[in-house]
Amino acid sequence: MSPLDPFVVEVIRHGLSAAAEEMSLVMTRSARSPLLREAGDLSSAVTDAEGGLAGQGKDIPIHMGAMAYAIPELLKLKPLETMREGDALIFNIGKLGGNHLNDVKVARPVFVDGRVVAWAISLAHWPDVGGTWPGSYLVNAVDSFQEAIRIPPVLLATAEGVQRGVMDMILSNVRDPVACEGDMLAQLASTRAAEKRIREMCAQYGTETFLAALKRLHDLSEAEMREAIRDLPDGVYEGEDFLDDLDANGDPARIHIRIEIEGDRAVFDLSGSCDRLANFCNMTPYIARSAVAYGARCLSGRDMQQNAGALRPLTIITRPGSILEPGFDAPVAAGNHETSMRIVEAMFKAMEGVIPERLTAGGASTSGLLNFCEPRKGEPWRMLYEVHGGGEGGRHERDGVSATRVLLTNTSNTPAEMIETNYAIRVEKQAIRRGSGGAGRHKGGDGIIRRYRVMAPEMWLTACLERSKNPPFGLQGGKPGQTFRLTLLRDGVETQLDGKLNMLLRQDDVLTLESAGGGGFGEPV
Amino acid sequence: MMYEIGIDIGGTFTDAVCRAADGSTRLLKVPSTPRDPSQAVGVALARLLADGGGVARFLHGTTVATNAILEGTAAKVGLITTAGFEDALEIGRMVRAANYDLSFGPQTPVDVVPAERRLGVAGRIGPDGAEVSALDEAAVARAVHDLLAQGVQAIAISFLFAFINPAHEQRAREIVAREAPGLAVSLSSEVDPAIREYERTCATVFDAALKPVMNVYLSRIETILAGQGVSVPLQVMHSRGGLLGAGAARGRPIRLTLSGPSAAAIGAASVFRDAGFEQGVSIDVGGTSADVALIENGTPALRHDGRIGKYPVRVPTADVLAVAAGGGSIAWIDAAGGLRVGPRSAGADPGPACYGRGGVLPTVLDASVVLGLVDPTRFANGELQLRPDLAEAAIRRDIAEPLGMSLVEAATAIHRVINATMAEAVRQMTVARGIDPRDFPLMPAGGGGGLHVAAIAEDLGMTRIVVPAAPGVLAATGLLEAPLEHDASRGFFRSLTQLPEAALREAIAGLTARCAAAMAADGAEADETEVSAAASFMGQGHTLDVVIPTGTDTPGEAIRLGFIEAHRLAYGHTRDAPVRLVELRVVQRKRSTTGAMRWPAHATTPDGTRAATIYGQALDVPILHRARLAPGERRQGPAIIEQADSTTVVPPGWAFTAHPTHLLLEVSP
């Protein structure tokens, strides 16, 4: 049987996704943090020996960037020859394809007959990684050191077992060491599950065939992506979008993209974006690349495999010193899921005149994050990391969907009954925010309203909402949706709060979040 | 002669199995009548009773409830909910099914109960079950009249934390009964008493919406039975894989959803038992999908988080994994030149190219015809003459030529890909759960199971295959084997340390009494009572099931110790930490007492040989008719074994032995 038998390639393709999905299953079943087991804010991936992404579970799209670049960057610091069977490395710094410090990766080189044939990577969003503010989202962070513990690639486990010193070092820097230890062990276990599957595949088909199939899968995906690009008309297209934040000059922080399509090649130049910001909305260039790859896949309107091969035809340029390549010491907690959305929507706007039928108008494209942390004396802090969807933009064939997550994020909400059972919070209301979607031939979907009452003496709050100043845009003459609104009712006085903030809440404070409606599509009739 | 008759309605065929008192069993397939599914039941019944005879038991499996949800044809329903949470049903969990496909639509049943039919009333229960504020009874009455004015045929009531304290829901039901006597009502605390308001409300709304529909449907079946002189009560299959009387089915119709796969799994468990196996895996291969079920301890594994389409419906159901891989799965070349099979299917209409009904795309069945595995003149008992020329043309044009392969190589590759997809599903049901499939026998079912089963077994290192006597009607067979079964549950979501033993004993007694009352209503008394709990460590999300010894004085302690041990078995480690009781469940059963089935022994195919390709090898394969295999005689593959409702391929390296209830294939190098 030739190693490139299409049957074997297809089977290994299935096997790789199954291995990644099995990893995620292990995580949701054995992790301790609610964020991981209820909301599923985690991803799993298998790469080839060089780190080229080969198989991914049905996870969070934005994590794909971290997965695609983590190992190639790691290997620059620690060459493959230094790896030993049984090793598992832990890291979260931006330099290793990082997205933000909360997303901690555990990576395991998979050995067969004494050589590395693949990597298994488990990424999990830890609810807290230390730093200045509980939850590790410090809005006005000046640098990365204020945000959280920075973990370079170190051995978390070897063939001898867990490296207790490393683990203790990490655990003594986070606010809930008990849950965190459980999560770390779950990550280790999930990479072992993938290792087992990969070894089985190598045993069944032969290691050489397995390796050849990985190469072939990358080639197939590259061809698919080239085909998708060829589908787009040649030309140069430009689009821009703005964060709610201001840049150093006091102007709205700008994300600009210049897309150059020529045959089956595409260049995405983001150099026109603003300079590094003095807050947590910067992002690493890896995430800029994964946002572009996500956007390209959406624009293609095709069902494609997402792997290293699919990235090859995309040339993605960021400018050093800019918000998208701010340097290793820049704060990046929010940029990961906020600024990355601006890139995708700038791409959509760039293509408005060319392929409007494939696009969706602007939506509640933000994590919509509220993080409530309740300090408890002598016990771990209790943290509710709750994300809020809103309206989706209208499309050429239908109205936008109300109350949904859009684009790069797809984690679920926490039911009111779970919140009230586990946290000192009462959910007083959860409703559709009627009329918040923008008008259009197809109107934007509506956002939601959720009202929280604080039932503890003190609660540390982080809010991270984009689209609270700059509304979701309409397309083809559709009207914008309404912006996010966050209001605090304290002692009978209602105050409108900033979309991004850290503050202390008190007993009986009532916090109301109204999420953005989507933009309309087409002139209203 | 008195008969037991099981009739199961599927998408294309309505299957009937009829067992006489002496065990002799007949099977019958009649075309389904989707516009009024009861018609096909009438036709099948009339044919089975054409020569006279009475009916001792009549058992029915139906997809009417599931289809009413999927097709949006359930009754017009209104929802009364806690004020401020009217939109919880529309908001759902906010996730979308696809990450990259921008064309997704609403993911929640917003059209089933639009905003104007979701009305909130003041009154709140807290997470500890205590009343936070009183129920606004006048508001409930106003809501009922508002909904009546909108023409609803049923009302669902779902209040926050009703699974812990149902007092407000029960009071609201009294008010509905007073204001709108006779109107169908469903309470979330009874339909799905478990935490998470969206999922509980979904199940409750569908239960209410199904009540008028299922009442009409079950009455139609009862009329047909009466018309044929059948006087025994109608019993229907519910999602757990048990039977219940038509009265109980009318009261909780959501229980009838997801029952089809359960019936097949029950049938598989029964055949495995007859063959001497307490555990096994079955794979039921139809036109568009393959359903994989896991049998342990003689019964199908259950799950409590079922889905219908995109909606969560938390009724207990057989844990069946459906993958889009069937005889109609279409083979295609992707943009990058890779061979793919499925998930798209040619379905029954137009169907595979070889049906000759206008389908031109190559499918798995077309590949089976090209490989000589299926006799084109005897497909579906000869009811459909297949066209090998069309199968060949489709595969040649769409697969062989683009990939530069021969026709047979292309057909072999299609089979390998689909076999791998099916094997992957079996792997997910076993390996991914820490179960080693090599210890398990594999059972093919459906028209296509036997064509793929050996390849799947080999892929997973499984060495035994059990082929049922009638693989094509396994669900109808399951109806005859299923017990009469009632269950009741109650949600807690609380640490065991907060639950006194006396309170737990009382809760178990209450649930047991509810089951017993339901049994009595079906004129039966249980011969089996099973008490169990879903539990987790505090702070853990995933629950494990723990069996509680019946009659114990200390159920709380039994749950705690049982859970700590179950955790060790499931995850390899455990700890002595506080345990949370999530749910208590009681199930009562009365087993069917009839004996084994004897299938008719008449052959319609001459034995001979046929040129066929197995695993890429061109062979002259003996063709044997199932009915002519002498019981106990062991033969060596290769062989193709044909019978009215299916074909089984025995590759070289396998031996097979016929038994009265099944055919056993074993690896025999």
Description of the molecule:
The complex is a heterodimer of chains A (525) and B (669). Chain A has helices spanning 6-30, 34-37, 63-77, 144-147, 164-171, 177-205, 207-230, 285-300, 308-311, 339-350, 416-422; strands spanning 42-48, 53-56, 88-91, 103-112, 115-125, 154-158, 161-162, 235-246, 252-262, 265-269, 314-317, 369-374, 382-386, 425-433, 447-454, 458-464, 485-490, 493-497, 500-506, 510-514. Chain A is α+β, with helices and mostly antiparallel strands and 525 residues long. Chain A folds into two domains: 6-222, no CATH class; 360-525, no CATH class. In chain A, the strands form four sheets. Chain A has a seven-stranded antiparallel β-sheet with strand order 2-1-5-4-3-6-7. Chain A has a five-stranded antiparallel β-sheet with strand order 14-15-20-17-18, covered by helices on one side. With 669 residues, chain B is α+β, with helices and mostly antiparallel strands. Chain B is built from 16 helices and 35 strands. In chain B, the strands form ten sheets. In chain B, strands 3-2-1-4-11-12 form a six-stranded mixed β-sheet, sandwiched between helices. In chain B, strands 13, 14, 15, 20 and 23 form a five-stranded mixed β-sheet that branches. In chain B, helix 10 (364-370) crosses helix 12 and helix 12 crosses helix 13. At the A-B interface, helix 1, helix 7, helix 8, helix 11 and strand 14 of A face helix 3 and helix 12 of B. Chain A: Residues 5-524 form the Hydantoinase B/oxoprolinase domain.
Structurally, how many domains make up the residues of chain A? 2
Largest interface: A-B, 70 and 55 residues
Query: Compute the gyration radius of chain B: what is it?
Result: 26 Å
Averaged pLDDT of chain B: 90
Strand content bin of chain B: 25-35%
**C-alpha-based Rg of chain A, rounded:** 23 Å
- Summed up, the helix count of chain A is 11
User: What is the strand arrangement across the widest sheet of chain B?
Assistant: 3-2-1-4-11-12
**Strand count of chain A:** 20
Largest sheet of chain A: 7 strands, antiparallel
Report low-confidence residues of chain A grouped into runs of 5 or more: none
| Structural class by sheet pairing and helices of chain A | alpha+beta
Q: What's the quaternary structure here?
A: heterodimer
Largest sheet of chain B: 6 strands, mixed
Beta content of chain A: 25-35%
Number of helical segments with 4 or more residues of chain B: 16
Shape of chain B: globular
Structural class of chain B: alpha+beta
